[in-house]
C-alpha cells in the first residue's frame, strides 16, 4: 500500500513530546520540521512553501498560542492541514475550520498518523 508523504511542521514546546512525534512521523516516511513555539513556526513557514501540515500544541510560550498560530496559518496558507492538540483546552470539532483536527492529550501516535493521512486525502 503506497501512502502519500507529507512535510509536517511540529510546533511543541515540550522537547520529549516533539521528538517522539518527530520519530513516529519520520518512521512512516514523512519529512518533519520542528519548532519550539509559534514564533519559530512562523519563521519556518515564511521560508518554506512545502509544508503540508502543521501539528501544534495549544499552550506554548511566545507571542501566540497554538490556536492563534492555526488562525495565522489558515489565513496565510489555506491549503495547509492543521492538527491542534492540548491536554488542557478542549475544542469543539464542529467549531474548527475545514482541514483542522483537534486531538486531546494524551493521544496515540496512530491517531496522529490517521489525522495526517486524512488531511492528505482532502
TrEMBL record:
<dbReference type="GO" id="GO:0000160">
    <property type="term" value="P:phosphorelay signal transduction system"/>
</dbReference>
<dbReference type="InterPro" id="IPR011006">
    <property type="entry name" value="CheY-like_superfamily"/>
</dbReference>
<feature type="domain" description="Response regulatory">
    <location>
        <begin position="7"/>
        <end position="120"/>
    </location>
</feature>
<protein>
    <submittedName>
        <fullName>Chemotaxis protein CheY</fullName>
    </submittedName>
</protein>
<keyword id="KW-0805">Transcription regulation</keyword>
<feature type="modified residue" description="4-aspartylphosphate">
    <location>
        <position position="57"/>
    </location>
</feature>
<dbReference type="InterPro" id="IPR050595">
    <property type="entry name" value="Bact_response_regulator"/>
</dbReference>
<keyword id="KW-0804">Transcription</keyword>
<keyword id="KW-0597">Phosphoprotein</keyword>
<dbReference type="InterPro" id="IPR001789">
    <property type="entry name" value="Sig_transdc_resp-reg_receiver"/>
</dbReference>
<dbReference type="Pfam" id="PF00072">
    <property type="entry name" value="Response_reg"/>
</dbReference>
Amino acid at each position: 500500500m503506497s501512502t502519500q508523504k507529507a512535510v509536517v511542521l511540529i510546533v511543541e514546546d515540550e522537547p520529549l513530546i516533539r521528538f517522539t512525534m518527530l520519530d513516529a512521523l519520520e518512521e512512516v516516511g514523512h519529512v518533519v520540521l520542528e519548532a519550539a513555539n509559534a514564533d519559530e513556526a512562523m519563521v519556518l513557514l515564511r521560508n518554506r512553501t512545502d509544508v503540508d501540515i502543521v501539528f501544534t500544541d495549544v499552550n506554548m510560550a511566545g507571542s501566540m498560542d497554538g490556536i492563534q498560530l492555526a488562525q495565522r496559518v489558515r489565513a496565510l496558507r489555506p491549503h495547509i492541514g492543521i492538527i491542534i492538540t492540548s491536554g488542557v483546552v478542549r475544542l469543539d470539532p464542529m467549531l474548527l475550520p475545514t482541514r483542522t483536527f483537534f486531538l486531546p492529550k494524551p493521544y496515540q501516535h496512530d491517531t496522529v498518523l490517521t489525522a495526517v493521512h486524512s488531511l492528505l486525502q482532502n
